Amino acid sequence: MTKKAQAEANQAKRAAYAEELFAELNHSIFKDGLPTDTKLVWNTRLLTTAGKAKWHRSSDGTRTTSIELASKILDCEGKRIRNTLSHEMCHLACWIIDNDSAEGHGSVWNKWVRKVTRYRPDIVVSTKHNYEIAYKYEWRCEKCSKIYGRFSKSIKPEECVCGACREGTLVPLFTTRQRTPKTPKTNVASPMAAEKGRGTCFSLHFRNAILQLQYDQILLFL
């Protein structure tokens, strides 16, 4: 079996597990109060949140519900899927069963959480997750050793430094291919890398601009 085929097979197992768990919890805890046609959507673009519940009521009264699950975070069967799916189902219960569309993580939501955990002690529902994410690419600061993770090679070590210590060079922890040097660009599109994954690096151009500004301010007082 190829690597791609294995990944697809594993994802199919995770999806089936989530569907079975939804049906079980909906019947046993929510008394079939959640729509049985609620779609469980596996989203590869969810990178910082493990799940997201959605509920919409159209002008004619039609309701649509879905739960998005982060395929890059919930990359294993079992605990992560159980905890995340239960969390989002509690949100749907607040909005649909209790008819409280403004409820977030308050008393109504916690009421459903307690019901879930009493029925399934192996499920832990919290307001935020702290799952370790398996990034495809990682860089380490050579000075403070902070690790930066991304799902693509979006960090350019030649254009930025560590966002934590503001000094260290970011060293890739993966094999890089040598490419023919390109003509240096005179303009930088963004002074700071987008904040996603573990940490944000700090642009060298931005740091140099700050140092120049501080130097100019010193000269004004001489």
Automatic annotation (TrEMBL):
Q: Which InterPro entries match?
A: SprT-like_domain
Which stretches make up the SprT-like domain? 15-173
Taken from the record, one Pfam family name reads SprT-like
Give one GO biological process term: response to stress
Q: Which residues form the signal peptide?
A: none
Q: Which GO terms describe its cellular component?
A: nucleus
| Name of this chain's protein | SprT-like domain-containing protein
